[in-house]
């Protein structure tokens, strides 16, 4: 079977892999497989920080120095990915299975495994499933190189094999292998055509059925990207993301055309009619004079950082918004990215303790967040 067929991922699995990257789209979304695949591609690129690490359109490893500290390679890969050694041991070496919603973790472990094997001087690897043996990915690692002082890149070639020599570790699920293959195929197109691996032995693995590619550590997808990739799940009927507009009555669903809206009406009407029957409250968003930044106490600050993301190893400092402070400096107000467009806010009741009657609120990309507090003044909330 051709290399490209094996990276097929069903629609349901695409939702799961995206979820593993915190890109949670409603499973009822009618988005096409192609549109979901595009989000997966964008998600993977954000996870490996392609835009930041690849100069221009193509990665050119000829400008990189070899990664010398091989013992530090695995540790550094782990730091870049925020992955935990215990996970690697439990899932990869002891074979504890993972669910489809843990695919990103599984891919991170594969990259960690590359570091592990590089360190041990092993160049040929097989990624197979210990329970299903009809296909596996054979990998030849050419070496690890230094993209920037703390980011390694693994140069390699790969091919599909159907007879697996021996039941080697590690065990990578079918979906994990398909997703990994997709990443390899994607990166292969980003590699400069001038690249050739060093040494005759390696060059044998760059010919015929072997395809040359690279792998960068896979970090958490930054919050900003998560926000972009979870918006616009498309027309509720056909999945098209072009020319969509919201149902003017409830604002909870979007349609691409009056035809699609008519088609949806029989099933949508109950939900649509129940919303205007609810209690609607108008609130004003703005600065709270007593506690700047919509209610955060003085001195606290908020960032647009995925909770699974770390600052370590990131060249780009996440944008930090500070509330005012003792110094009397003005609080930073994040820019208004929504304008007059409708958007969803999530309200979360405080987890006991702290201040009563307040709710945490934030939008999908965490571009807007703060506390909503009961107005004890005359107007009520
Ligand atoms: Zn439609
Ligand atoms: Zn409606």
From TrEMBL:
Residues 235-272 form the MYND-type domain. The keyword Signal does not apply. Pfam families: zf-MYND (PF01753). Gene3D superfamilies: 6.10.140.2220. SUPFAM superfamilies: HIT/MYND zinc finger-like. Signal peptide: none annotated. InterPro entries: TF_DEAF-1 (IPR024119), Znf_MYND (IPR002893). Transmembrane segments: none annotated. CDD domains: zf-HIT. One of its GO terms (cellular component) is nucleus. GO terms for molecular function: DNA-binding transcription factor activity, RNA polymerase II-specific; zinc ion binding. Keywords: Metal-binding, Zinc, Zinc-finger. PANTHER family: DEFORMED EPIDERMAL AUTOREGULATORY FACTOR 1 HOMOLOG SUPPRESSIN, MYND-TYPE DOMAIN-CONTAINING PROTEIN. This is MYND-type domain-containing protein. It comes from Coprinellus micaceus.
């Amino acid at each position: 079977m051709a290399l490209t067929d094996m990276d097929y991922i069903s629609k349901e699995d695409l939702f799961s892999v995206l979820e593993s990257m915190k890109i949670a789209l409603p499973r009822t979304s009618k988005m096409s497989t192609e549109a979901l695949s595009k989000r997966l591609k964008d998600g993977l690129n954000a996870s490996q920080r392609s835009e930041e690490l690849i100069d221009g359109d193509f990665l050119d490893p000829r400008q990189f120095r070899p990664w010398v500290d091989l013992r530090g390679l695995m540790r550094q890969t782990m730091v870049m990915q925020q992955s935990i050694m215990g996970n690697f041991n439990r899932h990869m070496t002891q074979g504890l299975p993972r669910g489809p919603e843990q695919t990103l973790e599984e891919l991170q472990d594969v990259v960690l495994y590359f570091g592990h094997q590089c360190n041990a001087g092993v160049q040929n690897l097989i990624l197979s499933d210990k329970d299903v043996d009809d296909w596996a990915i054979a990998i030849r690692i050419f070496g690890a190189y230094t993209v920037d002082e703390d980011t390694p890149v693994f140069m390699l070639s790969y091919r599909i094999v159907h007879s697996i020599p021996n039941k080697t570790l590690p065990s990578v699920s079918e979906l994990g292998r398909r997703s990994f293959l997709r990443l390899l195929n994607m990166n292969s197109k980003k590699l400069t055509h001038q690249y050739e691996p060093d040494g005759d032995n390696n060059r044998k693995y760059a010919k015929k059925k072997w395809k040359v590619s690279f792998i960068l550590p896979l970090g958490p997808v930054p919050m900003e990207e998560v926000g972009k990739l979870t918006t616009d799940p498309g027309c509720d009927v056909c999945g098209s993301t072009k020319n969509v507009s919201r149902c003017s009555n409830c604002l909870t669903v979007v349609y691409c055309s009056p035809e699609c809206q008519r088609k949806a009406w029989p099933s949508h009407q109950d939900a649509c009619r129940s919303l205007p029957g609810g209690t609607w409250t108008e609130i004003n968003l703005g600065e709270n004079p007593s506690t700047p930044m919509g209610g955060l106490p003085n001195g606290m600050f908020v960032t647009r950082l995925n909770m699974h993301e770390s600052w370590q190893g990131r060249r780009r400092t996440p944008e930090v918004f500070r509330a005012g402070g003792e110094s009397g400096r003005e609080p930073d107000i994040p820019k208004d990215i929504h304008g007059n467009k409708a958007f969803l806010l999530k309200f979360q009741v405080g987890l006991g303790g702290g201040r009563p009657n307040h709710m945490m609120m934030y939008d999908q990309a965490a571009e807007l967040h703060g506390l909503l507090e009961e107005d004890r003044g005359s107007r009520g909330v």
